UniProtKB/TrEMBL annotation:
Stated name of the protein: SDR family oxidoreductase
UniProt-listed InterPro entries: Epimerase_deHydtase, NAD(P)-bd_dom_sf, NAD(P)-dependent_oxidoreduct
Cellular compartments per GO CC: cytoplasm
Organism: Variovorax gossypii
Domain NAD-dependent epimerase/dehydratase, first and last residues per copy: 3-85
One protein family per Pfam: Epimerase
Length: 297
C-alpha cells in the first residue's frame, strides 16, 4: 500500500516509516519544512510538504495514498484544547478522503490517565476530562461506520530509546542534572508504562497490515515501572543522589511534569500481543537510562 505518515521525521514516526518500508509499503512522509523532508527522504520514503495547519495539504497528501498513519501532534501543554482541535480537524480531513475505501486510518493516543487505580486495558476508555485528545480517539473509532479502517494506538507515556527522545524521561533527566538530585514523589510506588520506540514502530506496521476497523491497541512493553526505580536509574546514570520529595512540592521541583510523574498509570498490552502476535524485544527503559541515553543536557 501507499501509506501517508504524519510526524514521519519524528521520534516514533521515523522508526515507523522504516518498519512500513521493510514490510513492503511505499511511504509518503508529511514534511513541514525542507529539513524534515530531507530526513524523510533519508529514510527511503517520499516527502510531501504539508502541515497540520494546512488542511488542504493534508487532503491532497492523503489523496495520493491508500491509508494514513497520523502520528503528528502539537505537544504544547499550554494550548491543549487548541492542539486537540487541530488534531480533530486533521482526522476529519483524512476521513473525508478515505471514506468508503476501507483504507487504514491509524491515529496516536496515550495510556496515561486511562484507568486510575488499576491497570488500563485496551477495552477501557479514558474520561475526556483527562485530556481533550481522548475524544479524538473515540471519534476515530466511529469512523469505521464510514468505511474507514479506523485504528487507535495508545502509546505508553514513555517511548524510549537511544538518541532523540525529548519526552518525559528526557525532561526528568534534565531536571535531575539541573537540581543535582534525582527525585521521586512520596514513596515512589506509583507506576509508569514504557515501550522502546522500535517495538512501538513494529506495532504500527502490524496494525496497518492486520488490524480490523475499530481496533484499539496498546504500545506498551513494560506495564508497571515504579517511579522510584526510574529515579534511581537516572541517579546512577547521572551520578547524582536519589531522594523522595513530598507530593506538595511536585510543581516546585519538577515544573509541568510533576503532575504526570506522580500519576499511577500502569497499562497492559496483553490483548494487543494476542491479537497481532506483537512481541516487544528491545531494551527496557531502565536499561536505556543506565546505558546513558538520557544525559540530561
Amino acid at each position: 500500500m501507499r501509506i501517508l505518515v504524519t510526524g514521519a521525521s519524528g521520534w516514533i514516526g521515523s522508526a515507523s516509516v522504516t518498519e512500513l518500508i521493510a514490510a513492503g509499503h511505499h511511504v509518503l512522509g508529511l514534511a513541514r519544512n525542507d529539513e524534515a523532508a530531507a530526513r524523510i527522504r533519508g529514510l527511503g520514503a517520499e516527502a510531501i510538504h504539508g502541515s497540520l495547519d494546512d488542511l488542504a495539504s493534508l487532503r491532497a497528501a492523503a489523496a495520493q495514498a491508500d491509508g494514513v498513519v497520523h502520528l503528528a501532534y502539537k505537544h504544547d501543554f499550554s494550548q491543549m484544547a487548541d492542539a486537540a482541535r487541530a488534531d480533530r480537524a486533521a482526522i476529519d480531513a483524512f476521513a473525508d478522503v478515505l471514506q468508503g475505501t476501507g483504507g487504514p486510518l491509524l491515529i496516536a493516543s496515550g495510556t496515561l490517565g486511562l484507568a486510575p487505580g488499576r491497570i488500563g486495558l485496551e477495552a477501557d476508555m479514558a474520561d475526556s476530562a483527562v485530556h481533550p485528545r481522548v475524544g479524538n480517539a473515540a471519534y476515530t473509532l466511529g469512523l469505521a461506520e464510514r468505511g474507514v479502517r479506523s485504528l487507535v494506538v495508545r502509546f505508553a507515556p514513555t517511548v524510549h530509546g537511544a538518541g532523540g527522545d525529548h519526552g518525559f524521561v528526557a525532561t526528568l533527566a534534565k531536571t535531575a542534572r539541573t537540581k543535582g538530585v534525582s527525585a521521586y514523589l512520596g514513596a515512589g510506588q506509583n507506576r509508569w508504562s514504557a515501550v522502546h520506540r522500535l517495538d512501538a514502530a513494529k506495532l504500527v506496521q502490524l496494525a496497518v497490515d492486520k488490524a480490523k476497523p475499530g481496533t484499539v491497541l496498546h504500545a506498551v512493553a513494560e506495564e508497571a515501572i515504579a517511579a522510584r526505580d526510574i529515579a534511581a536509574a537516572l541517579g546512577q546514570s547521572l551520578g547524582v543522589p536519589v531522594e523522595s520529595i513530598p507530593s506538595d512540592r511536585a510543581a516546585e521541583h519538577f515544573g509541568w511534569i510533576g503532575m504526570f510523574f506522580g500519576a499511577d498509570a500502569p497499562a497492559s498490552s496483553t490483548g494487543t500481543r494476542e491479537l497481532l502476535n506483537w512481541a516487544p524485544s528491545h531494551t527496557t527503559l531502565l536499561e536505556d537510562i543506565v546505558a546513558g541515553h538520557y544525559p540530561g543536557t
